[in-house]
Amino acid sequence: MPTLLQVDTQSGAGSITSQVYVCSSAEQVFKAMNIEAAMEIDGGWGSFRDRIDFIQSIGTTTTSVIVLVVATVVSSTETIKGQSWIQPPDTAFEVYKQGGDCFISSISKGGQYLAAYTFVTSDETSFESVVNVASATFPGWGVNFGGDFETRIQNISTATSVACNFNQTGIGFSKAKLPKCAAEIVNFVSDFGTLPLDNPAVFKYSTNSYSSVSGCPDFSHIDAYRRTYVDPTHNTPRLSDYELLAKTNLKRPPHLNSMVADITGWREAVDEDPTKPGITTPSIDKTVLVVPHPRYGLLVEPAAGTYGGGAFTDIDIKQIALRLLPSKIIIRGWDDVDALITTYELQEGPNLSFTTSHGGNGGVNSPEIDLGPGEFITSITVYWGD
Question: Which of 84, 278, 358, 367 has its CA at 20 to 30 Å from residue 124's CA atom?
Answer without folding.
Answer: 358
